Sequence to fold (313 residues):
Amino acid sequence: MTSLPTSLNDVVTAGQRAVSIDAAVLVKLTDMAGDLAINLSIAAIILFGTVVAARWAARLTRRGLLRVRGFRHDQTVLSFAVQVVRVVVYIIGFIAVLQRLGVQTTSIIAVLGAASLAVGLALQGTLSNVAAGVLLLVLRPYKVGDIIDIGGVAGSVQRLDLFTTQMSNANNHKIVVPNSKVLGDVILNLSGQKTRRVEINFTVGYGEDLNAARAVLVGVAEAHEKVLDDLAPWTGVTGLLDSAVQITLQAWVNSEDWWQTQADLMQGGKEAIDAAGIEIPFPHQVEVPAKGAVFTRVVATTAAEPESQPEGD
Fold:
């Protein structure tokens, strides 16, 4: 049988061991908490520095491109390049933060490699928009400020992003079109050239003097201050319609003057034709009675004023 003093010594020894183990665990936890706090603090500093660096890199990129003559007045390249640089800096900063928190770079690469296929399949539409945005930047079918028509939707280009093209129409509606749709559809750049042709169709009666009508329309175009002098206006008979002869007026103007000049020539042409006494026919409805039907035609007349009676009657 074990003696009492021996049992007390064992209890004391076990207690001392437990206390020493608890102290070691406490020291270890304290060290881990301190390391975690330091790493979190450094990670927060890196994250803040990433935001500052992204803004600084974007600003530096914009200033550098502004020094290049070809990109100085091209907001399309400037906005696109600045956005790409900002995203790259954010990615680098994010990897640095994860690495500081104990995540190995090789693990990050392995995870990204394993998930790239799934992400590519899930975001194939988004990635195609990015690829289309790069191609649009390289091919340059339009730039910021151009008026374009994509699939029947027209507007002024406000911005070209990695994923979308932003436009604004004449009613100041914001239009967002995915880059893949832009690249895969017909792009009609209405302001891509310095000059643009106005084409208006007028109709006159078959019994009218066509040469006189053409001369009237040419005079209207030549008198307009926005019509270019180096490209003379043209008129010609372009159609023999059911009840009228179609005469087309063509005049060249600067692209920015196209809308207002077209409206002015349309109004001025109509007024000039009326002033010259040339008929502009309009659709007529002809009444065709059915077989055996009897119609009573009503004719409206203006009542004649009664004749004045001579005085003395």
